[in-house]
Amino acid sequence: MALLFCFRDQGTMVDAESFTRIALALPDATSAPHFDRTAFKVKRTFATLAADALSANLKLTPDEQEFKCQLAPDLFEAIPNGWGRQGWTTMSLAKATEEDVAAALAMAHVHAVGKARKS
């Protein structure tokens, strides 16, 4: 079961190495270049890391996006375009803890895995 949120403490800023380690620790996750970003995917892309490592974009449901943006507006912001209306959400890594990142990536990862096929 995915961790939906965590109670934030004053941990250290998450860097690109930590974000990548956490993302690739998820089942079957891989990384690949995606324009000027690094994409993390399973069957579908669930996150991209900006080249400057200051932010990441996560694919959430619109309801999850709304929840995250209300819970931690200093960390999460809907992308202001059609991608954002589909749930793509920017996470600022400057104030994020590893626990924040792990919870958000786990939430996004669930949707990228896809549903099991009926037999």
Spatial sequence of strands, sheet with the most strands = 1-2-3-4-6-5
Mean pLDDT: 89
Q: What's the helical proportion of residues?
A: 25-40%
Indicate the low-confidence ranges by residue numbers.
Answer: 1-8
| CATH 2nd-level architecture | Alpha-Beta Complex
> Can you identify the CATH class?
Alpha Beta
Structural class: alpha+beta
Number of helices: 4
Total beta-strand segments: 6
Question: Globular, elongated, flat, extended or rod-shaped: what is the shape?
Answer: globular
* SSE series: HEEEEHEHEH
CATH domain topology: Aspartate Aminotransferase, domain 1
Query: How many structural domains?
Result: 1
Largest sheet: 6 strands, antiparallel
Distance between the termini: 23 Å
User: What does the radius of gyration come to?
Assistant: 13 Å
As a percent range, the share of strand residues is: 15-25%
Task: Give a description of the structure.
There is one protein chain. The protein has a 6-stranded antiparallel β-sheet. It has 4 helices and 6 strands; from the N terminus they run αββββαβαβα. It starts with 15 loop residues before the first helix and ends in a 6-residue tail after the last helix. 33% of the residues lie in helices and 24% in strands. It has one domain (16-113): Alpha-Beta Complex (Aspartate Aminotransferase, domain 1). Helix 1 (16-24) crosses helix 4 (98-113). Strand 2 and strand 3 form a beta hairpin. 29% of the residues are buried. Mean pLDDT is 89; it is low at 1-8. The chain has helices at 16-24, 62-71, 82-85, 98-113, and strands at 30-34, 37-41, 45-49, 55-59, 76-78, 88-92. It has 119 residues and is an alpha+beta fold.
